[in-house]
UniProtKB/TrEMBL annotation:
Name of a matching Pfam family: Cpn10
Name of this chain's protein: 10 kDa chaperonin
SMART domains: Cpn10 (SM00883)
Function: Together with the chaperonin GroEL, plays an essential role in assisting protein folding. The GroEL-GroES system forms a nano-cage that allows encapsulation of the non-native substrate proteins and provides a physical environment optimized to promote and accelerate protein folding. GroES binds to the apical surface of the GroEL ring, thereby capping the opening of the GroEL channel.
Amino acid sequence: MSELGPKKQAITMLADRLLVQVPTTEGERTARSGILIPATAQVAKRLTWTEVVAIGPAVRSIKQGDLVLFSPEDRFEVEIQAETYLILRERDIHAVASDRIDTGTGLYL
């Protein structure tokens, strides 16, 4: 540490790793019927969408800014400059939503 505080360093993701934001859907949520579901309620295999912040050099199908669908069980949390992010592997991503069209097929959200 210097006298001016901690030095900020650039972060580079390695291999097939993705850095994503913590999904805003975590915590309490409301069912369609209006019932409040607490954060502690167990939901079997519920996948979550979140935005990609950074990618490693071996990531092939995902770009920064894309929305990705993943299982909350396949994640590692990390804190960077007082913000919490998740680290995922590209192979753990189930779907990608983006503005660009890489192939001629797919669904629109």
